[in-house]
Amino acid sequence: MRVKRYVVDTMPEAMLQIRNDLGSDAVILSTKETKLGGFLGMFKKKKIEVIAAVEADEQANTATKQRQAQAPAPQKAAVPQKAVPQAYKKTAELTLAATGAKVSADQAQPEAAPARPEPRGAEMTSVQAGQFVTQTAGYGESAAANETPPSNVTFPLSERGQITGGLRRSEQPQPAEDREPEARNSVEAKLLEELQEMKAWMAKISRQSMMKQQLPAVLEKLQERLIQQEVDFDLIEEWITSSFDHWEESGRTLGDAELFAHVRSQVLAFLSERFGGGIANRTRIVYVAGPTGVGKTTTIAKLAAEQLLRFHRKVGLITSDTYRISAVDQLRTYASILNVPLEVVQSPGDMQRAFQRLQDCDIILMDTAGRNYRNELLVSELQSLFSAITDHSETYLVLSLTSKSQDMKKITEHFSKYGLDKVVFTKLDETGSCGSVFNLIREYPLYLSYMTNGQNVPEDLLLPDSKKLCGMLLGEEAP
Q: Residue 247: which pLDDT band, with cuts at 50, 70 and 90?
């Protein structure tokens, strides 16, 4: 037996090639869809893979060659109507012979009665094939009269399904086939989405390339400054692109001063929406959390001094930092200087007793032990302490500006599970970069509340000033 594989766009094209190569006695063994070509897994073209076979006896070969010699040369523009039905009819007859059904010459004629319905089951394939022969017999009467279906041909049921599956879709419900259009639509939708994203990305790259060539000197200088300040690229692009568009809309008549002012106005507008002020008047309890070594205890002392000396509120202190050596002694020293009560707790039960002892205070500030933010168990211990009292409370996250921006984001991600409200940035005097401030408050719903720039209590506790912070970012003034 001679077996040959074809990869084509359509079934009529496959039928034409099979008829020309193997003759009209050829049998289709299987058909399936496949995808070829493409770039990086995309843009693949759908093809149909067809496996056909013919008995390789000398008489069949001689007859095939004679028919091919007599037949005119095939034309790509048109597919003969007889080619497809005859090949299908031949395959259907072989399938009927394999299942024990007898296909007579009368059944190939248009006048033949349609096949009687049989019970649904494993032999549904033969019924469908017989129906298809009856419906398509009119396309090739003369060819059907000269052809005799081969006998004693046996196909496994799995191959029978492949043979007839590509010939005609069953009229009976077939869930597997019903799902094919949905899967195809899903793939096409995903491909369309990827193409749209690629188009937007290419447009963005093209625009950036154009801007890089035409960017005014002042905007180019500001862009380099923002990169040095470690501002996220998306935020830099937003500000610089907006200023570049403003410059083009003006006919490129704006000077350096106007462009600088435009960038500055965007930075100020960004900060105006993210300032949270200090501790609210209605707040009764302030929880202070953060990683190790950021200056939480000193910040607690500064906050206590501010509330006591500036707002004349009665202050109480609580600490749960019993892990670090001398941590309690450090806060006790500050409490003694400020003449405020201090309670030490180690469990949620201690928290309730401490709150009862400090119930006469206007505001209670609670210091917590520094935690390795990578250890989820240690960080989760804070939740049991924070949940003791939640009414009229605020939770502050303390971060050091000497930390890397990416580390700050990871720390915030871990602690944000326990309900953060505001953020305090420390050690402003120890760094010349403040870009991480903008990155953090842009990505997380935290309000910038305080900044510290030294060890002095309470002088070095600052409410954020948008103009000063903007000046630090753009290089107008030193920290």
A: confident
Taking the model in full, what pTM does it have? 0.56
Written as six digits, the tokens of 4 are 């040959």
Q: How many other C-beta atoms are found inside a 10 Å radius of the C-beta of residue 81? A: 11
The DSSP line for 11-52 is HHHHHHHHHHHH-TT-EEEEEEEEEE--BTTBSPEEEEEEEE
Kindly report the average pLDDT of the chain as a whole number: 73
Tell me the C-alpha distance between 468 and 30, whole Å: 76
Task: Determine the longest span between alpha carbons in the chain, in angstroms.
Answer: 116
Give the C-alpha separation, 265 to 246, whole Å: 13
Q: How far apart are CA 211 and CA 41, in angstroms?
A: 32
Residue with more model confidence, 269 or 252: 269
Going by C-alpha positions, the residue among 380, 322, 389 that lies closest to residue 352 is: 389
Percentages helix, strand, coil for the chain (3-state, rounded to 5) are 50, 15, 35
Q: Which helix (H) or strand (E) holds 253?
A: none
Say whether pLDDT at 161 is over 70: no
What does the pLDDT average to over 378-390?
A: 63
Pick the CATH number of 285-474 from 3.40.50.300, 3.40.50.720, 3.65.10.10, 3.40.190.150: 3.40.50.300
